[in-house]
């Protein structure tokens, strides 16, 4: 997923599985990522690198 610089992505279900993988790939491609998940504990393993801001939905 190259060429995502200056792009913002919202990834739902990013706490695990496919959603987690997709969020990580966008971040590796230089996108700013807003991962979203219903489980707040699932997001605690992501390092804060300035490109991921967690959004939890209840």
Main attributes of the structure:
58 residues; 21% helix; alpha/beta; globular; three-stranded parallel sheet
Shape: globular
Q: List the helices and strands in order.
A: EHEE
Task: Tell me the domain tally.
Answer: 1
Structural class: alpha/beta
Total number of strands? 3
**In percent terms, what proportion of residues is strand?**
15-25%
Major sheet: 3 strands, parallel
Short description:
The protein is of the alpha/beta class and 58 residues long. It has one helix spanning 17-28; strands spanning 8-12, 32-37, 55-56.
How are the SSEs ordered, and which strands pair?
Elements: E1 8-12, H1 17-28, E2 32-37, E3 55-56
Parallel strand pairs: 1-2, 2-3
Structure notes:
This protein has 58 residues and is of the alpha/beta class. It has one domain (8-56). The chain has one helix at 17-28; strands at 8-12, 32-37, 55-56. It has a three-stranded parallel beta sheet with strand order 1-2-3, covered by helices on one side. It is globular. The N and C termini lie far apart (30 Å). The mean pLDDT is 77.
């Amino acid at each position: 997923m190259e060429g995502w610089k200056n792009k913002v992505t919202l990834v739902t279900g990013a706490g695990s599985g496919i959603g987690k993988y997709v969020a990580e790939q966008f971040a590796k491609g230089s996108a700013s990522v807003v991962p979203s998940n219903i489980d707040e504990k699932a997001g605690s393993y992501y390092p804060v690198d300035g490109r991921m801001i967690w959004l939890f939905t209840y």
